[in-house]
Design goal:
Blueprint: H1 17-22, H2 25-37, H3 40-47, H4 51-65, E1 70-73, E2 76-79, H5 81-112, E3 114-120, H6 127-137, E4 142-148, H7 150-158, E5 164-167, E6 177-192, E7 212-216, H8 221-232, E8 238-243, H9 246-254, E9 259-263, E10 276-279, E11 286-295, H10 302-313, H11 315-325, H12 328-334
Parallel strand pairs: 3-4, 3-5, 7-8, 7-9
Antiparallel strand pairs: 1-2, 5-11, 6-9, 6-10, 6-11
Helix pairs in contact: 2-3, 2-4, 2-5
The chain binds 2-phosphoglycolic acid.
């Protein structure tokens, strides 16, 4: 025989019909406010109701429950024992309602929300692939992809404009940031396939000084990483041209304007059979990672959280793609 007062053992058929028919959520809301604030005046202010309305609602509730819920002691109101029991029931019902509301808002969010992603220039080669897969799982989510260079991405992150950011190098003050790796990002030296250095092994870095060099614009993460490598060996490349677009750099390299350092991701579509060759140069590939980043104190929308989880789980897929694209990478990663 189940204990009638143990709600964990109750079934929906045990629902008290007289309460369901006669108690309203409004009455409970009024009672909860008067109990919590200990005053009709303050409860009336909080709920934007008049005091007579409050009194009527509470009288109706007491009538249904069948016992007084509040008693007047001088000018104050005091809860009765029944009042305290009703108050606890109110708080747990309202908590359930709040959860219900949030769950429904979240559900709507995934059905019709929006994901705003801001990525550094080079991440345009990998963000669409992830977005494509994500969008198949959540077709109602609108996607906004902003592509700009690292400096501008950081500015936008500081202004809290987007949901999530993708970059190849986390800013120095990264203690304020939450960062997640989701793909390798190898930087390689690219040359046209007919260049005399193609096929040579272990080319010393200083040999590149004799070659005209094409480099990304100031503010680019690839530019920083490239110059840092040269700088660490006390060398300076002979920069012939600065370009803010990876695609423009690829065309410039193919046209014989010079060599350049680019992310391996930039040749994802054409693969190794395209018009660019990777040179085997000392210090390369520069092994970097891609990061998804957001400020630590940012409250992520459900859509953003889902995308983040999705991206982090995507890491092995990108790793496999990179190794398939350029098998030499496997050894470098494992060394
Ligand atoms: P970038 O960043 O496209 O701004 O150069 C890429 C990276 O940091 O690897």
């Amino acid at each position: 025989m189940p204990n009638l007062h143990d709600t964990r053992n109750s079934s929906l058929s045990d629902l008290p019909n007289h309460l369901i028919r006669h108690v309203t959520l409004r009455q409970l809301q009024v009672f909860e406010a008067v109990y919590r604030l200990g005053s009709f005046t303050r409860a009336a202010e909080e709920l934007f109701l008049t005091q007579p309305t409050l009194s009527t609602q509470i009288r109706k509730l007491s009538d249904v429950v069948g016992v007084p819920l509040l008693e007047h002691v001088g000018r104050n109101v005091q809860p009765t024992e029944a009042g305290t029991i009703v108050y606890h029931a109110c708080t747990s019902m309202f908590e359930t309602l709040i959860h219900l509301d949030t769950d429904i808002a979240n559900l709507k969010g995934l059905k019709s929300g929006r994901l705003r992603l801001c990525v550094v220039t080079t991440a345009k080669y990998l963000a669409p692939e992830m977005l494509g897969k994500f969008s198949r799982d959540y077709p109602g989510v609108d996607l906004v992809l902003n592509v700009t260079n690292r400096e501008k991405v950081i500015e936008r992150m500081q202004a809290n404009i987007d949901d999530l950011y993708i970059m190849g190098q986390v800013p120095n003050n990264s203690t304020d940031l939450q960062t997640y790796t989701f793909s390798p990002n190898p930087l390689v030296v690219m040359a046209p396939t007919n260049h005399p250095l193609v096929g040579k092994k272990n080319i010393p870095l200083k040999v590149l000084l004799d070659e005209p060099f094409i480099i990304r614009e100031p503010g680019s993460g690839i530019r920083d990483a490239t110059l840092k490598l040269f700088d660490s060996r006390g060398l300076k490349p002979a920069i012939k041209m600065e370009l803010s677009s990876n695609e423009a750099i690829k065309y410039a390299v193919v046209s014989g304007l010079g060599l350049s350092v680019l992310s391996l991701h930039t040749i994802t579509l054409e693969g190794m059979d395209g018009p660019l060759a990777i040179l085997d140069v000392e210090g390369f590939p520069i092994l970097r990672n891609w990061y998804i980043v957001h400020p630590k104190d940012k409250e992520l929308s459900l859509v953003a959280q889902k995308f983040l989880d999705f991206a982090v789980q995507y890491e092995p897929v990108f790793r496999k793609h990179m190794v398939e694209l350029w098998p030499a990478l496997e050894k470098v990663i494992n060394d």
